[in-house]
Design goal:
Among the domains are: about 110 residues, Helicase, Ruva Protein, domain 3; about 60 residues, Arc Repressor Mutant, subunit A (Orthogonal Bundle); about 100 residues, Alpha-Beta Complex (Glutamyl-tRNA Synthetase, domain 3); about 110 residues, Ribosomal Protein L25, Chain P. It is flat, with a radius of gyration of 35 Å. A seven-stranded mixed sheet has the order 10-22-23-24-20-21-11, covered by helices on one side. By secondary structure, it is α/β, with parallel strands linked by helices. The protein contains 26 helices and 24 strands. It comes from Ursus maritimus. One of its GO terms (molecular function) is glutamine-tRNA ligase activity. It holds the Pfam family tRNA-synt_1c.
């Protein structure tokens, strides 16, 4: 019955029945709208006109502080606020003035209450705007941007009705230009724009010339500068929608607008962000987005960013993870303002936990871990135990009088995901890598995270906890997680892959951890550019791997020098080689830009080509070496022509005998192929996707689980590939484009005896075509 009454009430405000029913599904909104309508009826009676109803709906759906509802409803019901523009100004005012009392005179001035805009004023403002643009308006006629005229008139008359301004603009423009002609009705010619991929490539090239890895994500930086217009300024946390204010809020925020903090002494008008990883695993591609967002936002706004290790679980933390995380942040081009640890603050966190108990906001609980799992766990029978009892028990936990799992400290709150009374402290008899055996109780991530943000005075970061303790409360900005198809990034599942022998370790190049991507040869600039393309999104984003690979190609095309390698060698003897000694061939490092230098390779009577570049019987469309079909050898200026095929006892082709001629001494061949002479033997590892299905963790797509979805062809090792001698001095992580094959990076497994290369990505073209 109550629902029917509310439905009738909402449709009486002018909402359609469908809109009213949708509103009823939102408990908080429907309650606030019901209250607003009821209060308005006390002034207007039972009937509320549609214009007022629309404003009441806008008020109820956008107001974040219910304390201001009655105040604003009275202005709407009494027609003092009667436009959407005034309502927006009113909502902004109460958001930016969270403390009582509200200065009504200042409020009314800021919201245009009592301001009357006459038709004559609108006519004069529009006429003035047209006169300023008359020459251009007469030239462009109806192709002129009329929004410019309306914007200038609105700037003069802030509280004027938008529809009235538009009508006046239309009338005065018609009087000036007359009716539209056929020419006016023709479509405006489109201005040709560079294709996005061309624009991205130019951007990448420019960024590479600057030489700073952290500046590779310029487009992300621009986005983040734009986000600064949406985010609050330091010290104005209370202007953020949903930010909860307390009687202490304004005093606690004063430190961000004046003075210095003893712990971190510098002006606090700066933006302060942090990247807070848990050191219990290796960072993956999703973390790259978080790194770019936090460090990038600070850099774009002349701020600082902390790297803070949330080292609150000594059972899972290892020294190698701390080192690897720091290395990956640096590899992506960022330098933390300061490296900190949650363990730096263990004493303060413990003191705050005691204070929380004193305030009746936390209690010691004896429910077991299995009883606390999930979001529908049974309420704790110890939730209302006396404060003094919890204080004694928490001290007993601190002194090691409970076994692991026998007692926890829980906070009295419901988290955003619906979890009831999350754990703040638990007992663990594991030495900590930094504090040793000092502690046998450790804070949880849920408890620690926001309080460390408060300690470090992060400006842009459950902050019920901060307010419950009356400490500075940062603002938490949520941005969506970044995932990739054909991949798993969970630490637990990567450990399963390692244990099953499916991958070698965290840095196996088939994974999407950052250490794996570095080992495969992905440049950090490409990862930053990929994050820039993804953008600052709130929703979780799952991208195709080929989009990341496209960013890799864009960077490597401009940075990876060319070399030649042969994966499946076929020996070729040139029977009429023009000299008795080998020739030295100058090969450009970057054929498209020879100013970047050359390298030298030998060219002798014995060369090796790809076995796939020869066929005894060429099918239609085949352009490489065959009987009666010569090919050119890249960079040599020579063309070879088949004379004899040498086969072994099994009938397999073992070598070819050819003759050569100058390329300019006859008809141009249909194709030019790569080759090597006097080469180095190397190992080359060719990688494909690790999983066969797009979503290997989806039971509907892979019923047998992700381990059953492994691609048996994800790694092919070519143990005796040949590469030209120009790469002889290459070091781990050096990158090359092997012509016609793809981009390759030197693997750390390389030694003085033999180089090992990982194929980073293929070329855009089919490697089998010329």
């Amino acid at each position: 019955m109550a629902a029917l009454d509310s439905l009738s009430l909402f449709t009486g405000l002018g909402l359609s029945e469908h809109k009213a029913r949708e509103t009823l599904k939102n408990t908080a909104l429907s309650a606030q709208l019901r209250e607003a309508a009821t209060q308005a009826q006390q002034t207007l009676g039972s009937t509320i006109d549609k214009a007022t109803g629309t404003l009441l709906y806008g008020l109820a759906s956008r107001l974040r502080d219910p304390r201001r509802l009655s105040f604003l409803v009275s202005y709407v019901a009494n027609k003092k606020i009667h436009t959407e523009l005034q309502l927006s100004a009113a909502l902004e005012y109460v958001r930016s003035h969270p403390l009582d009392p509200i200065n009504t005179e200042d409020f009314e001035q800021e919201c245009g209450v009592g301001v009357m805009v006459t038709p004559e004023q609108i006519e004069e403002a529009v006429e003035a705007a047209i006169n300023r643009h008359r020459p251009q308006l007469l030239e462009e006629r109806y192709r002129f941007n009329m929004g410019l005229l309306m914007g200038e008139a609105r700037a003069v008359l802030k509280w004027a009705d938008g529809k009235m301004i538009k009508h006046e603009v239309d009338m005065q423009v018609l009087h000036l230009l007359g009716p539209k002609t056929e020419t006016d009705l023709e479509k405006k010619p489109k201005v040709s724009k560079a294709r996005p991929e061309e624009k991205d490539r130019r951007t990448t090239k420019d960024m590479m010339e600057n030489g700073e890895a952290a500046n590779q994500a310029l487009s992300l930086m621009e986005q983040l500068r734009g986000e600064a217009l949406k985010f609050h300024k330091p010290g104005e946390n209370y202007k953020t929608p949903g930010y909860v204010t307390t009687p202490h809020t304004m005093d606690l925020l004063k430190h961000l607008s004046s003075g210095l903090i003893p712990l971190f002494p510098f002006p606090l008008s700066q933006v302060r962000t942090r990247f807070p990883p848990e050191p219990n695993g290796i960072l993956h591609i999703g973390h790259a987005k978080a790194i770019n967002f936090n460090f990038g936002y600070a850099k774009a706004n002349d701020g600082i960013c902390f790297l803070r290790f949330d080292d609150t679980n000594p059972e899972k933390e290892e020294a190698k993870f701390f080192t690897a995380i720091y290395d990956m942040v640096a590899w992506l081009g960022y330098t933390p303002y300061k490296v900190t640890y949650a363990s730096d603050y263990f004493d303060q966190l413990y003191a705050w936990a005691v204070e929380l108990i004193h305030r009746g906001q936390a209690y010691v609980c004896h429910q077991r871990g299995e009883e606390l799992k999930g979001h529908n766990s049974l309420p704790s029978p110890w939730r209302d135990r006396p404060i003094e009892e919890s204080l004694l028990l928490f001290e007993a936990m601190r002194k090691g009088k409970f076994a692991e799992g026998e007692a926890t400290l829980r906070m009295k709150l419901v988290m955003e995901d619906g979890k009831m009374d999350p754990v703040a402290y638990r007992v663990k008899y594991t030495p900590h890598h930094r504090t040793g055996d000092t502690w046998c109780i450790y804070p949880t991530y849920d408890y620690t995270h926001c309080l460390c943000d408060s300690i470090e005075h992060i400006t842009h970061s459950l902050y019920w906890l901060c307010n419950a303790l009356d400490v500075y409360c940062p603002v938490q900005w949520e941005y969506g997680r970044l995932n990739l198809h054909y991949a798993v990034v969970s630490k637990r599942k990567i450990l399963q892959l390692v244990a099953a022998g499916a991958v070698r370790d965290w840095d196996d190049p088939r994974l999407f951890t950052l250490t794996a991507l570095r080992r495969r040869g992905f440049p950090p600039e490409a990862i930053n550019n990929f994050c820039a393309r993804v953008g600052v999104t709130v929703a979780q984003t799952t991208m195709e791997p080929h989009l990341l690979e496209a960013c890799v190609r864009d960077v490597l095309n401009d940075t990876a020098p060319r070399a030649m390698a042969v994966l499946e060698p076929l020996q070729v003897i040139i029977t009429n080689f023009p000299t008795t000694k080998s020739l030295d061939i100058q090969v450009p490092n970057f054929p498209a830009d020879e100013t970047k230098g050359f390298h030298q390779v030998p060219f002798g009577p014995m060369v090796f080509i790809e076995r796939t570049d020869f066929k005894e019987e060429a099918e239609p469309g085949y352009k490489r070496l065959a009987w009666g079909q010569p090919v050119g050898l890249r960079h040599t200026g020579y063309v070879i022509e088949l004379q004899n095929v040498v086969k072994g006892p099994s009938g397999c082709v073992e070598s070819l005998e050819v003759t050569c001629r100058r390329a300019d001494a006859g008809e141009k061949p249909k194709a030019f192929i790569h080759w090597v002479s006097q080469p180095l033997t190397c190992e080359i590892r060719l990688y494909e996707r690790l999983f066969q299905h797009k979503n290997p963790e989806d039971p509907a797509e892979v019923p047998g689980g992700f381990l059953s979805d492994l691609n048996p062809a994800s790694l092919q090792v070519v143990e005796a590939a040949l590469v030209d001698c120009s790469v002889a001095s290459a070091k781990p992580f050096d990158k090359f484009q092997f012509e016609r094959l793809g981009y390759f990076s030197v693997d750390p497994d390389s030694c003085q005896r033999q180089l090992v290369f990982n194929r980073t990505v293929t070329l855009k073209e089919d490697p089998g075509k010329v």
